[in-house]
Amino acid sequence: MIGNLNHVAIAVPDLESAAAQYRGTLGATVSEPLELPEHGVVTIFVRLPNTSIELLHPLGEASPIAKFLERNPAGGVHHICYEVKDIHAAVKRVTADGYRALNPTPKIGAHGKPVVFLHPKDFNGVLVELEEA
Fold first, then answer.
1. Which residues contact 92 (CB under 8 A, 6 or more apart)?
2. How many domains does the chain have?
3. Catalytic: 129?
4. DSSP bridge partners of 101
5. Catalytic option among 35, 61, 83, 129
6. Backbone angles phi, psi at 30, to 5 degrees
7. Is there a contact between 70 and 2 (Cβ–Cβ < 8 Å)?
8. Domain of residue 13, residue span
9. CATH number for the domain including 41?
């Protein structure tokens, strides 16, 4: 069912500093910040030849990233994202197998495509994002 690894998301306490590390020190191509109010985040994508790194920073106090950074002040890996061909079929399959979708109705993600998040307790402690490719 899952396809390519789309990205690994890293929550960061300082978005500009993290982007500068990837751009300057590591020589990566870094996107401009994108605010996603419906997800409560500001995101920057670091382009790699085979995937992307998504840098996440809270947008507002109610952001799930703000809560993550309270528990992990230095930041850290927040989730991994896999591509799926059909997001609705993917949700149907995982929920039929007894796994929990945090948002069973897909939302539009940072790439303008439908996404669903799967509960980390069901996936070895990892928050999994499925994105329709």
1. none
2. 1
3. yes
4. 118
5. 129
6. -125, 130
7. no
8. 2-132
9. 3.10.180.10
- Residue 105 carries which DSSP code? S
Torsion over CA of 55, 37, 13 and 43, rounded to 10 degrees? 10
Report the residue count for the chain. Answer: 133
What are the tokens at 34? 């994108």
Q: How confident is the model at residue 45 (pLDDT cuts 50, 70, 90)?
A: very high
- CA atoms within a 13 Å half-sphere pointing along the CA-CB vector of 123: 20
**Does the pLDDT at position 61 exceed 90?**
no
Scan for tokens 């500068």, then name that residue.
20
Task: Give the distance from CA 5 to its chain's centroid.
Answer: 11
Helix (H, G, I), strand (E, B) or coil at 21: helix
Q: Which two tokens stand for residue 126?
A: 């990892």
Indicate the Cα dihedral angle 19, 118, 3, 50, nearest 10°.
10
Q: What is the mean pLDDT of the chain?
A: 97
